[in-house]
Structure prediction request, 162 residues.
Amino acid sequence: MAKTAQVLLVMDMQKGFSDAYHFNELVEKINQRIEEYQEVGAPVIFIQHTEKGLLPGSKEWQLADELLATPEDMTVQKTHLNAFYKTELNDLLTDNDLNQLEICGLQTEYCVNATITMAHGLGYDLYMQPEMTTTYDNEFMTASETITFFEDIWGSNFLTFI
Prediction:
């Protein structure tokens, strides 16, 4: 089994983003990690983004059906790119003595990047498996190029790849 951190943070894997690059493949890879965390009794926290078009309770806002979420998993709602901003995430982690986080999900250059840089600034030890985020093509880079670009930055400065 691959190494695990103390907690797996699954970012914004919601139905409204199901058209992102390799979304279904990422769900499968995240499910493998979820199972590994469950095997060792480590928690999984699902982060859900809320904004116009992703309103609580709407179909788009819900987690992808295929994700192996259980009632025991924790969920944090956010309205900002940074999952720590005006949410209970930091308190939840601190109260449970969780300082090693593995991060995966979407969107690479927005929510995942903002959360990684904030978590690093707060002193968390961060881990990630390669190619465990997704995004969309933009006018400058393909989704694949964006993922590679940010993984190079993260691996050199913010987290350890496992």
